[in-house]
Design brief:
92% of the residues lie in helices and 0% in strands. Helix 1 runs antiparallel to helix 3, helix 1 runs parallel beside helix 4 and helix 3 (26-81) packs antiparallel against helix 4. By secondary structure, it is mainly α. It has two domains: 2-160; 163-223. Belongs to the PspA/Vipp/IM30 family. Residues 150-169 are annotated as: Disordered.
């Protein structure tokens, strides 16, 4: 369990450069690594809890054995005081038995206590490393998203200068120029037609004036 956690930590500590060069999605892989590490921590917590319970159980048995040793000692004294040497002897024999059990339990409890302390230290190390990796994950995820955005922008920019885009742009520009030329031509034709009409209108106006002038001359006897 702890070995597996160390392996995951080693991968994380390398900043996952290999993953960034492969097809895997770094963000998804980082999240998966963190889930694996969190599972390792839960398993470690269960192991620590079990070891602590075992240590407490052994400690209780050790206390019970020591209490029986003291009890048998006290009973042996009372039996002797009462003149019952045989009862005192049996009390001392049972005392020896519990003393032997207490010694065995003492060794087991000390070992269990040391193991529990070691597991607690390792568990705390795992939690600290998890926090460190979690912070690093956020940084790596931000870098991955930035890289994706840059790639997308660069691709968009590169497509702007492609032959297809350029040709399409030039084609539209040519079409606009043609529209403008057609508009100017139609305006020239309209102006030309208007000038011709104006000349005829002026001619007709001049004729009217001439007629009126002739009539006026006749009245004045100028002819």
């Amino acid at each position: 369990m702890f070995k597996m956690f160390k392996r995951v930590k080693t991968i994380m500590s390398s900043e996952l450069n290999a993953l960034l060069d492969k097809a895997e999605d770094p963000v998804k892989m980082l999240d998966q690594f963190m889930r694996d590490m969190a599972e390792d921590i839960r398993e470690a917590e269960a192991a620590v809890a079990k070891q602590m319970a075992n240590e407490k159980m052994l400690h209780k048995k050790l206390n019970d054995a020591n209490k029986l040793v003291e009890k048998r000692q006290s009973q042996a004294v009372k039996a002797l005081e009462a003149g019952n040497e045989d009862l005192a002897r049996r009390a001392l024999e049972d005392k020896k038995l519990h003393e032997s059990q207490a010694q065995t339990l003492e060794a087991s409890w000390q070992r269990a206590k040391a193991d529990a302390e070691e597991l607690k230290v390792k568990l705390q190390e795992m939690k600290n490393e998890y926090q460190e990796m979690d912070l690093k994950r956020e940084g790596l995820k931000a870098r991955a998203e930035t890289a994706k955005t840059k790639t997308k922008i660069n691709r968009s920019l590169s497509s702007l200068g492609s032959d297809t885009s350029k040709q399409g742009f030039e084609r539209m520009e040519e079409k606009v120029l043609r529209y403008e030329a057609e508009a100017e031509t139609s305006e020239d034709l309209r102006s030309s037609n208007r000038s011709l009409d104006d000349e005829f209108e002026a001619l007709e106006t001049k004729s009217d004036v001439d007629v009126e002038l002739e009539e006026l001359k006749k009245k004045l006897g100028k002819e």
